[in-house]
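Q: A reviewer asked whether we had any structural model of the full assembly, not just the individual parts. We don't, so I'm hoping you can provide one. Inputs are below.
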Amino acid sequence: TQLLEQSPQFLSIQEGENLTVYCNSSSVFSSLQWYRQEPGEGPVLLVTVVTGGEVKKLKRLTFQFGDARKDSSLHITAAQPGDTGLYLCAENNAGNMLTFGGGTRLMVKP
Amino acid sequence: KAGVTQTPRYLIKTRGQQVTLSCSPISGHRSVSWYQQTPGQGLQFLFEYFSETQRNKGNFPGRFSGRQFSNSRSEMNVSTLELGDSALYLCASSLELQLYNEQFFGPGTRLTVL
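A: Here is a predicted structure for the entire assembly that you could use as a starting point for your response.
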């Protein structure tokens, strides 16, 4: 079973700061998804990356997939309190079976 | 379009009891997956149903079971509850059985076992 490691586990920053969270695997990803989960809700898909070296942008969020497809990063520019939440990376294996990383809990203080 | 709904939202049970959780997927979605979320183990896959058939199962004991009905609604059952079963149980639905398919999660059922 593939292990997904996320770092850091916790991050507390001030509004306006930039941050990067990482997701690493012991083996090659077939594809990788990033989710955000807010308290009292289920995870919501932010992006799916498939091709090594791929970069996708979603407003202030930039997602990068490593060339070797064994790592990915999520960079947030000028973080806002609304970005607070649990960020999860996940591999979508065949049959809609998601394997999640441990998550990065982000708190953005106003 | 209504999202994934889960009932009940909160549940308190005692050790040894059994519990049934319900999930109604987004209309038209035929795949339903269940996950357990705990502070210690994170989000872990339980099982996935497609067209009333269990397609995949995670590494959980036989006390955890599920089923899917012809209208795609799904239930999961946990028998002989243990303290460690306290968790947020999430259900997710998706349109088709595709590799990069988006799964839509419900708000979860928070189960507390005393």
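A: Points you may want to mention in the reply: The radius of gyration of chain A is 13 Å. Chain A touches chain B at residues 30-31, 33, 40-45, 48, 50, 88, 90, 92, 94-103 (CB under 8 Å).
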